Amino acid sequence: MLGLELAYWQESILRGLGILAAVLLPAGTFVYVFLFKMVSFMQSRLGPMEAGPYGSMQLLAEVGKFLQKEDLVPDRADRTLFKIAPYLVVGTVLLTYLVVPFGPDMVFIDNEYFGTGIFFALAVSSISVIGIIVAGWASASKYSLLGALRGAGQLIAYELPLVLSVVGVVIQAGSLDLQRMVVAQAEGEIFGYGGLGNPFLLTQIIGLLIFIIAMQAELAQTPFDMPVAESELVAGYMTEYTGLRFLLFFIGEFASAGALSAIAATMFLGGWWLPGLDLDADYMNVVGPVVLLAKMMIFGGLIFFVRFTYPRFREDQLQRFAWKVLIPLALVNITATGILKVVF
Amino acid sequence: MIRLSSADTEAPEQAEDEAAETDERREALLAELGEHLGDAVLDSHIAPGRQLWIRVDAGSWLATFRHLRDDHGFRFFDFLSAIDWMPSPYGRYEDATVDVEGGPARPGPSDAAGGYATGVAGGETRFQVLARVAKLTEGDLAVIVKADVPPAGDDPDQPGSVPSITSVYAGADWHERETHEMFGIGFEGHRYLEHIYLPSGFEGHPLRKDYPLLARTVKPWPGIVDVEPMPGGADDEEGEES
Amino acid sequence: MTVTEPTEAEQLAYISAKAADARINVELETEEGMTLNIGPQHPATHGTLRIVAKLDGEQVLWVEPIAGYMHRGYEKLVEVRTYPQVTTLVNRIDWLAASCNEVPFILATEQLMGIEAPPRAQYLRTIFHEMGRIAHLMMFLGDMGVQIGALTPMFYALRDREFVLNQTESVSGGRFHPNFNRIGGLKDDLPKGWLDETVRIMRKVLAFCDLMEDLLLGNEIFQQRTRGIGIIPAEIAQSYGLSGANLRASGVDWDLRRDCDYPMAWKHADFDVITHTDGDSFARTWVRLQETREAAKIVTQLCEDLPAGPIMAKVPRIIKVPEGEAYVATENPLGEMGYYVVSKGDLGPFRVRVRTASFNNISITPWLLRGVYVPDIITILGSLYFILGDIDK
Asked: 3-state DSSP call for residue A219?
C-alpha cells in the first residue's frame, strides 16, 4: 500500500492499531457530537462546556473517571461470567469493522477467502446478544435479569429484518463483499446517466428503511430501548456494572452504532466513494475514510435524533412490530429486487 | 355582601337568609336518615350551607354507610379518621391556655358530667371515628358520620373496634389501616390491618394524646423569637381583640 | 416515657433483621412468581414509594404498594403549633404546589372564625393557586414523557416552568414554598408590573401546551403505550375516592372549583371542566393537559379583572379560633385536598386531619395493577400522578 514491503507480523500490528483507531475514533466522535452536543441542543441546554474547548475533551475526562473507579463485583454474582460479558460485547464490534472498506486499498483483510463481507459482519454482530444475556444473568439482580431477557428477545427478533433487508442489496450488487458493493454503486448508472453512480439508496429505499429501524433495535436505542429502560429497570442489564466494565459497555454501544452506520453507509450510500472522484487513485486512501466518516455521521445523527425524540415501545408491541410488519415487508422487498434484477 | 371583618353584626341574619336553601337540602336529608335509621342516629349538627354531621352508634356504623350508598347515592368516599378527645397531658406550648397540667380535662360545655369535652354532634367516649362520604351528582352534598368507639374491656381510655366499611367503600382500606396504627382502633373484617406509615415493629399509637411528641419532650419549645407586625397597620387596635 | 438506649447486640440484631427483609431474593419461585421490589430508590417513582410486585415473567400477579418511607407526622406536629405556624408547615405536604396546600387550611380556619378575606386577596389567592397548578401540571407533562421513555419533553417542561416560578418568586421570595397566604388574606401586595408580566407568561404556557400536545400526546408510540392501559371505571374511581384529573378522566363531571362555594375568585372566572370518557392513562394525561390550558385562562382573566382594595382582613394579632369543627377541600393539582380542623377555642388546632389526594389515588393500585406488564406499572403510576409528600404526609 505504501510501497513498503512489510513482514506479516508488522502488517498484523498495523492492522490491530488500525482497527482500534477505526473503532475508537468514530465512537468518540459520535459520543461528542451526538450525545454531548446534538442532544443538548435538542433539549435546549448547552451540554459539557468545561473540559477542553466547548467540552471536546469531556470524553477523555469520562474515560479517566471510569478507569479510576473501584472494581466491584456483586456478592452473589458469577465472577467469571460477570467479568467476561463486557469483553464479549466489545469484541464483536471490533470484529464487525473488519469487513468495512475505508478506501480502494484500505481493507483490513484482502483475501479471496474472506470475500463473505456482509455475511461475516452480521454473523459476528449477533454474538453481542450472548454478551448481553451473560451480563444480565451473571449479575444476580432481578433488574439485570429482566433487562437481559428483554434484550435477548428483542435482538433476536430484529436480526431477521436486518439480514433480510441486506439480501436485497446483495442481490443488486451481485456480491457479498462490501468492496464490490462500493464499486457496483460507483460504476452503476441511473437510467443511463453515469455521473452520480447508482447508490442503492434509490432502488433499495424499502431495504434502507427496514435496515435503519432494525439497526435502531439492534443498538437497543429508544424507541427500542426496553433492555435498558431507564425509568423502569434502572439500567437494565448494565445495572451492576461500574468502572472499566461499564466504560466498555458504553464505548461498545457507540462503537457498534458506528459499525452499523458504516455498513449502512457502505451498502446504501456508496461507502468511501463520492461522485466525481477516481475509484482507483491513491489519494482516495486518504480521502476515502473521511468521506466514509461523514456518511457515518449522517446515519449516526439519524439514530440519535430518533433516540431522544421518541418514547419507547413496550416489549410485546416491539415484537409484534418486528414479526408482523418488518419481516413481511423485507420479504416483499427481496422478491421485488430479485424479479427486477432478472428483468432488467 | 362579602364580610370584611369579624365583628359584623349584620352577618348572622344574612347567613341565615342565604343559607336557607342549602339548609333545606341538608335538613331534608337528615330527616330521611333519621326516618330510616331510627334510633341509630344519636345526634346531628348542620353548619348551614357547609356541612352535615350525624352521629350514629357503633353497631349501626356499617349499616349507615350501606344505606347512604345504596339508597341515597353517596358513592364518593372522602376520608375516614378518628379523633382522640382527651386533652394532651403534656401541654402544648408556652402560651397554652388549656391542657396545662396533665390529667383529664375540665368538662366542657357540650357534654354530660365527667368524660371529655367533645365536638359537634356530641360524643361519649374518648375516641370517635368519623368518615365523610359525598354525592357528586348534586353539588357539594356530603355527610360526615361520626361514631363513638366502644371501649375495650373495662378501661374507658382504651378503644375497642368498629366494623370495617371496606365492603361498602373500597377506598376505606388504607384509611382504616392508618387510623388503626395511629389510634389503636380495631376494624373488624378488614382484609389486612397492618401498619401503613409506621415501620412494622413500631410500638405505640402516635396520634393518641398521651403519646408524646418526642421533639417536644427532648427539647422544649423555643418560644417566640420575633413577632411580625400585622400588615395594614393599626397593630394597637387589633392587639386588644384577643 | 423514658427512652432507653438499645444495647449494641440489640442494634446489630435489628439491622440484620432489616437486611434479611430487604435482601433481593434471586431464587425464581416459578410457581408463585418472582418478587420484584420497585423502589424505594428508583428513577421512576417520584420519591420513596416502594412497590412490591409479584411477577410471572413480565406480567404482574399482584402488587402491594408500601408507603410511609417519608412519613413526617403532620397530624401530630400540628397539635403543638399555633394556626399561623401550621400554615407554614402545610406548604410542604405537596411540595410542588405549595400555595395550593395552604388554601384549604386557611379557608377552614377562616370559616371557624367567621371571617373572609377581602376581594383583592381572594383574587390573588386564586391566582397563586392556579399558578401553582400550572407549575405542577407542567412538571407532570414532562415527567409523563420520561416515564414512557421520551427524555426531551421534560427539558422543555422545566424550561417553561421557570417562567411561572420566577413570577412566584418575584411576589413572595420563594419559588417552591412561597408561604404567602395568611389567615385573613395575604402577606403582601404585588410588585409593580407583575400583572402584565404574568399575562405575558400565560401566553407562553399556552404555547407550551400546544407543543406538548403535538410532541408527546400526538406521538404514535405514546398513544400505543397509554391508550387502554389502566382503565378505571367511574364507579370504582368514586368508591376509592379518586379525585382531580383521575376522576374526570373516567367520565365523572366533578370539579370542586365549580361545584363548591368558597370565598375565592373561581366564581368570577369563566372556565370549562374537561372530562374524558375512556378512563385510561391517555385520558388522564390529556385531561391534565387541558386543565393546564384552563388554568392559564383563569389566571389571565383574574389578572385583568383584579379589584383594588386591602389584602388583609382585620384579624387580631394573636389568632384564637372559636370552638368548632370544619372541613374544607379544594381542587388542588393532584386532586381533592382537604383539612378537617377541630378547634377547641385555643391558639392552635386540637386535631387536624389532612385528606390528601395521592393517598386515595395510590390506594387503587392493588386493584388496578393486576395482570398488567411491568412497563405498564410505570405508565399507570405516572398517569395517576402522585407526590410522595402527599401520600405520606
From this structure: coil
Q: Which residue of C has its CA nearest to A313?
A: C221
| C-beta separation of A151 from A233 below 8 A | no
Residue carrying C-alpha cell 392508618: B178
Closest CB to A142: pick one of C36, C222, C373. Answer: C36
| Chain B nearest CA to C267, separation (Å) | 14
Amino acid sitting at position A283: Y
Task: Encode pLDDT of B125-180 as tens digits.
Answer: 888 899 999 988 776 788 899 988 888 877 777 888 899 999 999 889 999 999 99
Entry field: residues in chain B: 242
Distance CA A35, CA B67 (A): 62
- Chain B neighbors of C256, CB-CB under 8 A: 140
A315 touches chain C (CB under 8 A): yes
Burial A236-273 (b: 16+ CB within 10 A, else e): bbbbbbeeebbbbbbbbbbbbbbbbbbbbbbbbbbbbb
By the 8 A CB rule, do C311 and C189 touch? yes
Task: Report pTM.
Answer: 0.85
Return all residues near A276 (Cβ < 8 A) that are at least 6 apart: A195
Q: Does A310 touch chain C (CB under 8 A)?
A: yes
Q: Which residues of A147-170 are buried (b: 16+ CB within 10 A; e: fewer)?
A: bbbbbbbbbebbbbbbbbbbbbbb
d(CA C365, CA C379): 12
What cell does C364 get?
A: 387503587
Grid-cell match 462503537, residue found: A255
Q: Identify all chain B residues contacting C3, using CB atoms and an 8 Å cutoff.
A: 214
Would the CB atoms of A231 and C156 count as touching at under 8 Å? Answer: no
Best residue in A139, A232, A315 for a mutation probing chain C (most C CBs within 10 Å):
A232
The helix (run of H) or strand (run of E) holding residue C64 is strand C59-66
Q: Which residue of A has its CA nearest to C378?
A: A232
ipTM of the complex: 0.86
* A279-328 pLDDT per residue, tens: 777 788 888 888 899 999 999 999 999 988 888 888 888 889 999 999 99
Long-range interactions of B111-119: CB distance < 8 A, separation 24+: B116/B85, B116/B86, B116/B87, B117/B85, B117/C344, B118/B83, B118/B85, B119/B83, B119/B85, B119/C323, B119/C324, B119/C325, B119/C342
pLDDT tens across C63-105, in order? 888 888 889 989 988 888 888 889 988 888 988 888 899 999 9
Q: C275 φ, ψ to 5°? A: -125, 165
